[in-house]
Fold this sequence. Notes:
By secondary structure, the chain is an alpha+beta fold. It has helices spanning 41-54, 63-83, 133-139, 145-150, 187-190, 195-204, 209-222, 243-246, 281-303; strands at residues 2-11, 21-26, 29-36, 91-92, 94-100, 105-111, 115-120, 123-126, 170-175, 181-185, 229-237.
Amino acid sequence: MRIGRYAALSDTGRRRLQNEDSHVVEPPLFAVADGMGGAQAGEIASRIAAAAIEEGVGAALGVQTVELLVREANARVFSRAVDDPATAGMGTTATVALVDELEETMAIGHVGDSRAYRVRGDALEQLTPDHSLVGELVRSGRLTPEEADTHPHRSVITRAVGTEAEVDVDTMTVPLLAGDLFLLCSDGLTDMLRDEEIASIVVGAGRDPRRATEALVSAANAVGGDDNITVVLFEIEDGVPSPSEITAEHPLPAYAPPVPLPAPAPPEPAVRRWGAGAGARWPALFLVLGLVASAVVVVWSLMR
C-alpha cells in the first residue's frame, strides 16, 4: 500500500480580499489550516500552524505524532498572539493526516471545523467532527444537518489552535484500502457544497486528484465563493511503500535500559605522616631551642 496521486488547490473565493487558508502537502503528511482573526491575523495564524506541522515531515508516524504536531502549532500561534498585540486573539483550524504505508493506516489530528473525508467507491464519509456551534447542536439532536447548512452562526467554532495556551486535539486512526481517496478541506468548500455534491464532483472527475480539486473549487465559487476555499486530495493505491516509509521511525523510541555507571574507585588509604605536619614546624623548632637553652643553663649552674 502506498500514496498515489495527490493535488492541492487554495483559492481566495469571490467575497474575501485575502486568503487566510494554508495547507501542507509533503507526503506522507497532509494538512489544512483555516485562519481566523482581525486584519491579517488569520493568515498569520494559519501560516504559523502550517509551518509547525510541516516541520514534522520525516518524523515518527502515528496518532501521537499528529497530536504533538498540532500542539506545537498551538504553542507557536499562542506565543505570537501574546507577543504581538496586533494579532491578539488570532487562531486557526488544523486538520492533519499522516499516512503509514507499512501499517496501512492513517493517523488524523483535528481541531476546528475544517474536515477530513474519505471517498471509498462512490460514497463520501466525513471522518472528523466539526468543533463548531452548529456541529455541537447537530450532535445533540437540536439541529438537523439541513438546518445546520443554513444556520446564521454556522461559522462559529468552539475549538481552535492558538487561542489558548493548551488545546484539546481529536485524534483517530483509520484503515486504508487501495482505491481510497482522502479529502482535506476548509469550510469554504463545505459551506458552499453539500456532501453529496462533493462526492458527485469527485467521482465525475474520474477520481483524479488534480481534476477533482479544480472542479471542487470552481463549483464552490460558482455558488457564491463566500469564503476562502482550500482542497487537498490524495489517493491510496496498491504497491511497495516508498523508501521514506520503509525507513520511518516508530512512533516512540524503543525502551533502552539505562547504562550502569562504573563503580566508584575505592578511596586511597590515608597517608600517615610522622613528625610535625605542615604549619607545625615553627612551634616544634622553638620547643627544641627552649630545651637546648634550659640544658645550657643547667650545665652553667653546675659548673659554678
